[in-house]
Amino acid sequence: MAAIYSLYIINKSGGLIFYKDYGSAGRMDTNDSLRLASLWHSMHAISQQLSPVSGCAGIELLQADTFDLHCFQSLTGNSSPLSTMPWIIRTKFFVVCEPGTVHMEALLKHIYELYTDYVLKNPFYEMEMPIRCELFDINLAQAVQKDRVALLAR
Amino acid sequence: MQFFGGSEISPSPPMPTASGNNGHMMYIFNRNGICLLYREWNRPLKTLSSQQDYKLMFGLLFSLKSLTAKMDPTSVEKGNLGVPQLPGQGCSFHSFRTNTYKLSFMESPSGIKIILVTHPRTGDQRESLKYIYNLYVEYVVKNPLYSPGNPIQCELFNTTVDQYVRGLG
């Protein structure tokens, strides 16, 4: 069984720009993954609005009955155009993994590094558009594989 | 307080891991999305009116539940996103954490939703929520003056919940 079920990257307006499945049961079609991504984008924003104290940056970890969802946000972003949402909107990376999987923050940070190196520095990549970069795919596959080996070794 | 038999509510409350005022607020919703109870202990930031706040909270839980039901990587047959589901059906969630708070969520088979918002570093609150549900059964459901579906106005319940949440770690 896979420790990581899937990886999503969503852009600043809530559009899915990268989705990879690593063996979850029941395939999701493209429309479903797009809908889930934009739903997550809005729920993330609402969670910031409901915070009892100021300075909330949105959901980091969602614990469901059968999986954990870890969300990481890029360090840079745009400030929101709406006065009711006084926060910075950033690119979000999130993994769906088995409940209780550890070191997911480190993996997400590593994926973010790969994204900056192989996607943002690619002169043919247009910002906010779906990611189609071969080198990113290769290095991502290696990172996830390495994480799996490390998990088996524990 | 139990009306028949022993003086203790079963099961006994889970032991708090550390003492401290970690509770921010608590909501209880019924299955129609009506806010039966709202308790607030520590909330410096409030941007919305009460009614708007309840609606937003219920909407967040409803949508997160349909998200987790659709995302569930272990089941093959999940239906479409947003398909109506009965309490207990489909993959639900029990908590989420942001950098400023942690929200724990429980839904009873009758559709009562209990939401507890605490400090982000509090531990697993599933047992605490079950205990609060027990208090709800004892002090609200068994109260002959309470009619179901109306906001809870039960002083004894409020004070007991306040006291319990104050002791949560």
Automatic annotation (TrEMBL), chain A:
InterPro entries hit by this protein: Longin-like_dom_sf, TRAPPC
Gene Ontology BP annotations: endoplasmic reticulum to Golgi vesicle-mediated transport
Any one cellular-component term (Gene Ontology): endoplasmic reticulum
SUPFAM superfamilies: SNARE-like
UniProt family annotation: Belongs to the TRAPP small subunits family. TRAPPC4 subfamily.
Assembly with partners or alone: Part of the multisubunit transport protein particle (TRAPP) complex.
Protein name: Trafficking protein particle complex subunit
Taxon lineage: Eukaryota, Viridiplantae, Streptophyta, Embryophyta, Tracheophyta
UniProtKB/TrEMBL annotation, chain B:
SMART domains xref list: Sybindin
InterPro entries: Longin-like_dom_sf (IPR011012), TRAPPC (IPR007233)
One of the Pfam families matching this protein, by short name: Sybindin
Family: Belongs to the TRAPP small subunits family. BET5 subfamily.
Native source organism of the sequence: Buddleja alternifolia
Principal localisation: endoplasmic reticulum
Biological processes annotated in GO: endoplasmic reticulum to Golgi vesicle-mediated transport
Keywords: Endoplasmic reticulum, ER-Golgi transport, Golgi apparatus, Transport
Top-level taxon of the source organism: Eukaryota
GO CC aspect terms: endoplasmic reticulum; Golgi apparatus; TRAPP complex
Name under which the protein is recorded: Trafficking protein particle complex subunit
Places the protein is found: Endoplasmic reticulum; Golgi apparatus, cis-Golgi network
Subunit structure: Part of the multisubunit transport protein particle (TRAPP) complex.
